[in-house]
Write a structure and sequence with these properties.
heterotrimer; A alpha/beta (167); B alpha+beta (125); C alpha+beta (551); B: 125 residues; alpha+beta; 2 helices; 5 strands; globular; C: alpha+beta; Sulfite Reductase Hemoprotein, domain 2; Sulfite Reductase Hemoprotein, domain 1; six-stranded mixed β-sheet; five-stranded antiparallel β-sheet; 21 strands
């Protein structure tokens, strides 16, 4: 599936190449290149995965808190958070946890079922990569619909209160 | 409880304005009394399947079948909910289909049995 | 009251355009109904039994005359000339067309109103004491913090796809007029030992299939910390609330499963982190800025004399006029419960007339109470006769606030897609049975609440007499519950037993009241007598007909 990433200082949305391959639980690990495995697989083959001289990522299901990665989270290049169904909003909290509690600096990617109308919430809670069929034009439009926000979130965006006090 | 062999009718809501619709010969009408009654379950199922086209075309939402029965006065839904849906709010007879001649006022309230005394109902004072 | 600045106005305007786009995408089929449903719910739009229903937010139940006039306009232009005030202080219109809703939202935005998050799995309208800012027994007006919570929760990116809906209430008085303990989360304004004002936070209350009373999760939260604290509770819920079972997905289930100790631990963990980062600190200047919007109107110095009038006026004063903090002023309840009328309904003509009353006598303010009445919070005592006279002309002067005919009823099967039974005709029947005003006063305070299904929008669990409509083999039946209360002495009503048919429930309620009158001791309300003697005598009286029938 195509990948949209937010990049650069201005966090502009761009189409990107997915440099990772998703590895099934029972499949062999590729010799090189980025690999994304499930949490189950990561637990099982942790040492082997981390010993690879290649980027590693973990794909979390909706009920898997990023805290289950422990300190290993900082050795990951990407954490993929799955939305099984657009109305299951746990992923917003997981992304926010990655950014704020765990101070994760890598890529936080969303995969699965999400709506155009959720794109701005995903960006605000800390996602910066999106497995999606939305075009870049549509994606960018989603981000422009609401020009102000009332509350702070993981993206550090200025709130209406900041703007009121001239920050 | 309606018997399995009760006749059925098909209803839906129109997407653009929420109006209650009833199926008639491959199309939708506003009044239950003008609509098709399916005596056989297979005809009802066929109509429900045909109605999906209107869902796919974003004309109606949520088509479903409901049980009806016939008496001397005509066709009536079995369930209170469908009786009210066909007519309008029972507390405002100036609103809904009943007001515009598209539905009849709900029939007079049924007579129901008082609750049967159960074993655990101590009726001593 | 709060006034939008350019930021609030733009926010609402952009939201309207966003919804306009969503409607267009639905009509074109780009969105299917399953996807659109949650989006339209987040703008308060339901699909009900006969038509769509639009729920408009009335933040903490406060309206200006201009806003009330706009509601009248919407009722006339887009609907059938009336609206319905709800148990969460909102207003509902029962007949809007989907294609008109973006324009309705635009009209609302022009008077600083919206339908944002009045449904959906998100934080809903923040309700507050309907006597806020006027009641004599208030520690502080709860509306400033309710407004701050409203802004913080509006399109909060992390909390718009919660396991289920989330309802917050705020109270500024020890006398709880906001039913705090029945809410998912509640904020009670309190003083600590040092005399400082802060917040007690409760969590885990709820109605519905499994009612719960909330428990305290934060004994004293300083004002500056309140948003950080509330956000912590929301995060625990969003992460851990059940999503596998619709009937177990409210926070009340999680709160009961975790228990107070573990809930506090999880909340405090989040809270300490947020507090340390400082991102949600509520500065004193911001509080003061919002407070200023709710500064009390300029009260004149008036003699504190209550005018007298004829018997009708005197009767109305007994129940519908309440003490105000400023001498010479009063709070007036406008009953939307005329005997035999539809509880909570108000016509466009009545709304316009009330707007005039607000201009003339009401200092441009009206409140919606969760008991489905309206309140003029600031009226001069000397104006009460003129106000009463006008209300009488409008059919809005029923002298029954808090009495047995002041019944709360959800729309029920007459309107609602979720209902199992009708509730409004039952309310009408009961009200007619007790129409005699002397009888009503003899009975005294007795709150009857009726829900047409287990979702409990009529708040029947908090009724002194609660009635739940059920579907028993296709026939409407009504279960009685006794002894519920939504005040500071909160309790969940006890189920009496097998249900009564629609012609039996009225007589059953009459027998229950008769039992009360027989058993009560000096000064006891119905609720007090029930709490003293228990269910048995009431149950025996209620099912009395069976005794004779069986014989």
């Amino acid at each position: 599936m195509p990948l949209i990433k937010l990049s650069g200082e201005s966090r502009t949305a761009t189409l990107a190449c997915d440099s990772f391959v998703r590895v099934a639980d029972d499949a062999a690990l590729p010799e090189d290149g980025g690999a994304i495995v499930s949490l189950t697989r990561f637990r099982k083959d942790r040492d082997a995965l981390l010993a690879r001289n290649a980027p590693i990522g973990v794909r979390l299901m909706a009920d898997e808190s990023p805290e289950q990665l422990g300190d290993d989270v900082h050795r990951l290049s990407v954490v993929v958070i799955e939305f099984p169904k657009f109305r299951d909003g746990r992923g917003f909290s997981w992304a926010r946890m990655l950014r704020t509690r765990l101070n994760f600096k890598g890529e936080v990617r969303v995969a699965g079922d999400f709506l155009y109308d959720q794109i701005s919430y995903l960006v605000r809670t800390g996602f910066d990569a999106f497995e999606t069929n939305f075009t870049l034009e549509v994606f960018t439009r989603a981000l422009s619909e609401m020009s102000t926000v009332y509350q702070p979130s993981a993206d550090g965006r200025k709130t209406i209160r900041d703007l009121r006090s001239g920050k | 409880m309606a018997k399995v062999s009760d006749p059925q009718m098909l209803t839906a809501n129109r997407l653009v304005d929420g109006d209650v619709l009833y199926w008639k010969a491959g199309q939708w009408v506003l009044s239950l009394k003008d609509a098709d009654v399916f005596a056989a379950a297979k005809d009802a199922e066929a109509a429900l399947a045909a109605a999906q086209k209107y869902v796919a075309d974003n004309v109606v939402v949520n088509p479903y079948l409901f049980d009806v029965k016939t008496d001397a006065k005509g066709i009536h839904p079995v369930k209170e909910r469908e009786i009210i849906r066909a007519a309008g709010p029972t507390v405002r007879d100036d609103l809904g289909k009943q007001a515009s001649g598209l539905g009849s006022k709900p029939p007079p309230r049924r007579i129901e049995m008082p609750p049967k005394p159960g074993k655990d109902n101590d009726v001593s004072i | 009251m709060y006034r939008y600045d350019e930021f609030d106005a733009k926010f609402v305007a952009e939201r309207v355009e966003q919804f306009r786009g969503q409607v267009a995408r639905r009509l074109s089929g780009e969105l299917n109904e399953d996807q659109f449903k949650l989006l339209r719910l987040m703008n308060g739009l339901y699909l009900q039994l006969h038509a769509y229903m639009l729920r408009i937010a009335v933040p903490y139940g406060t309206l200006s005359a201009k806003q009330l006039r706009m509601l009248a306009h919407i009722a006339r232009k887009y609907d059938r000339g009336y609206g319905h005030f709800t148990t969460r202080q909102n207003i509902q219109f029962n007949w809007p067309k989907l294609v008109d809703v973006p324009d309705i939202l635009s009209d609302l935005a022009s008077v600083e109103m919206h339908c944002i998050q009045t449904s959906g799995n998100c934080i809903r309208n923040v309700t507050a004491d309907h006597f806020a800012g006027a009641a004599a027994d208030e520690i502080e007006d709860p509306r400033p913090i309710a407004e701050i919570i409203r802004q913080w929760s509006s399109l909060h990116p992390e909390f718009v796809y919660l396991p289920r809906k989330f309802k917050i209430a705020v109270s500024g008085s020890a006398h709880d007029r906001a039913a705090l303990k029945f809410h998912d989360m509640a904020v009670e304004i309190v003083r600590n030992d040092a005399g400082e004002v802060g917040y007690r936070v409760l969590v885990g209350g709820g109605m519905g299939r499994t009612p719960y009373l909330g428990y305290v999760v934060g004994d004293y939260v300083a004002k500056t910390d309140i948003l950080a604290f509330l956000e912590s509770v929301m995060r625990v819920y969003n992460q851990s609330g059940r999503r596998d079972n619709l009937y177990k997905s409210r926070i009340k289930i999680l709160a009961a499963a975790l228990g107070p100790e573990e809930m506090r631990r999880q909340v405090m963990r989040e809270f300490m982190e947020i507090k340390q980062k400082g991102t949600l600190a509520l500065p004193a200047e911001e509080l003061a800025r919002i407070d200023a919007y709710f500064a009390p109107p300029k009260f004149e110095s008036l003699p504190d004399e209550m005018p007298k009038g004829d018997a009708d006026f005197e009767n109305w004063k007994k129940t519908n006029v309440h003490a105000h903090r400023a001498p010479g002023y009063a709070i007036a309840t406008i009953s939307l419960k005329p005997i035999g009328g539809v509880p909570g309904d108000c016509s466009a003509e009545q709304m316009d007339a009330l707007a005039e009353l607000m201009d003339k006598f009401g200092m441009d303010e009206i409140r919606v109470s969760h008991e489905q009445n309206l309140v003029l919070p600031h009226v001069k005592k000397r104006d009460l006769p003129a106000i009463f006279a006008r209300l009488s002309e409008l059919g809005l002067a029923t002298p029954n606030a808090g009495l047995i005919t002041d019944i709360i009823a959800c729309p029920g099967l007459d309107y609602c897609d979720l209902a199992n039974a009708r509730s409004i005709p039952i309310a009408q029947d009961i009200a007619k049975r007790f129409a005699d005003l002397d009888k009503q006063h003899e009975i005294g305070e007795l709150k009857i609440k009726i829900s047409g299904c287990i979702n409990a929008c009529g708040h029947h669990h908090a009724g002194h007499i609660g009635i739940l409509g059920v579907d028993k083999k296709g026939v409407e039946f009504y279960q009685l519950q006794l002894g519920g209360s939504g005040a500071e002495d909160a309790s969940i009503g006890d189920i009496m037993g097998p249900g009564f048919g629609e012609h039996e429930i009225g007589p059953a309620v009459e027998r229950v009241v008769k039992a009360y009158l027989m058993l009560r001791q000096d000064g006891e309300r119905f609720l007090d007598t029930y709490r003293r003697v228990g269910m048995e005598p009431f149950k025996n009286m209620a099912y009395l007909d069976q005794l004779y029938a069986a014989h």
